[in-house]
Every structure is written in structure tokens, then in C-alpha cells.
Amino acid sequence: MSHKVITHWKGNLQFESDNPNGKTVLMDTSPEHGGHSSGLSPKAMMLASLAGCSGLDVVSILDKMKVKISDFRMDTYGELTEEHPKYYHTVSVEYHFYGEDLDESKIKKAVDLSIEKYCGVMEMFRKFANVKTSIHYHNK
């Protein structure tokens, strides 16, 4: 299986990339680097992709387990190297679950399955970064 993404220059430092499903995303950089901050930066998109990949797994697994949550958020942090080419050498993903009487053991199992088995983006990140994860339960 392969994917094709077409990225088109939109002027200045702005680019638009499509997705195999036809949706598009806008990329840009900050004004201090010559852009207009009109889209996500490519590196921030990598962190968003990591969270999105794992989040899709977790929600799908929790749904199959019939685990109820009222909200779910992931805070993803990346630490860049000092030298060029700058890349994330350390990444942290914090999983935050909200709800009443959260089933912590099933939630942990869902997160672990994503981290260890299903999330391909997580596996890609492990090739170049130390990936740390944590789970936070917010019972109401």
C-alpha cells in the first residue's frame, strides 16, 4: 500500500497539501521566518499526526470495549535538536481522559495497544526520537 500527497506552493512560504482522501491542509511558517502563520508548521503537523494516529486508535478501541468517556485530549510536546537539521529528539504524549467513574484499567489497555501495536506514526517517531507517554485520569 502506498499513499500519494501533492503539495502545491501557494505563494510566499505557504503550501497546501492534499490527503489521499481529498482533504487539504495549509502549511506556513511564522513571521520571524518570513511566513504569515496562516497554517500549521510542518514540524507541528508531525506532532499533530502522532496525536491523531494514536487518538484514532484509542477512541476506536475504547468504543469496542464499550468504555464511556466524556472528553479526551492529548498534549504533545517535542524538543528540537540545537543544530540543523533540527528534528525532535524527545517527544512526550500526555493522554488526558475525562468522565465519571473512568475505567482506568481498560483505558490504560487501549492506550498501551495504540502505543505498542497499532500506531504507525508512533513507530516512525521511535526511529529518531525518545518517545515518552503518560496517562492522566480526570474523574468528575
Q: How is this structure best described in words?
A:
It contains 3 helices and 6 strands; from the N terminus they run E-E-E-H-E-E-H-H-E. It has 140 residues and is α+β, with helices and mostly antiparallel strands. The strands form 2 sheets. Strands 1-2-3 form a 3-stranded antiparallel beta sheet, with no helix packed on it. A hairpin with a 2-residue loop joins strand 1 (7-11) and strand 2. Helix 1 crosses helix 2 and helix 1 packs across helix 3. The chain is globular. The mean pLDDT is 96.
Largest sheet: 3 strands, antiparallel
What spatial order of strands do you see in the largest sheet? Answer: 1-2-3
Low-confidence stretches: none
Give the helix/strand class: alpha+beta
Overall spatial form: globular
Through-space gap between termini: 43 Å
Percent of residues in helices: 25-40%
Oligomer: single chain
Our estimate of the beta-strand percent is: 25-35%
Listing every helix as H and every strand as E from the N terminus to the C terminus, the arrangement reads EEEHEEHHE
Give me the number of helical elements: 3
What is the number of strand segments?
A: 6
**Average predicted local confidence, pLDDT:** 96
How large is the radius of gyration?
A: 17 Å
Label this structure with key terms:
140 residues; alpha+beta; 3-stranded mixed beta sheet; 3 helices
Topology summary:
Blueprint (H helix, E strand, L loop, with lengths): L6 E5 L2 E5 L5 E4 L14 H23 L6 E10 L7 E12 L4 H15 L1 H7 L3 E10 L1
Parallel strand pairs: 5-6
Antiparallel strand pairs: 1-2, 2-3, 4-5
Helix pairs in contact: 1-2, 1-3
InterPro entries: KH_dom-like_a/b, OsmC/Ohr_fam, OsmC/Ohrsf
Protein name: Peroxiredoxin
Pfam family, one: OsmC
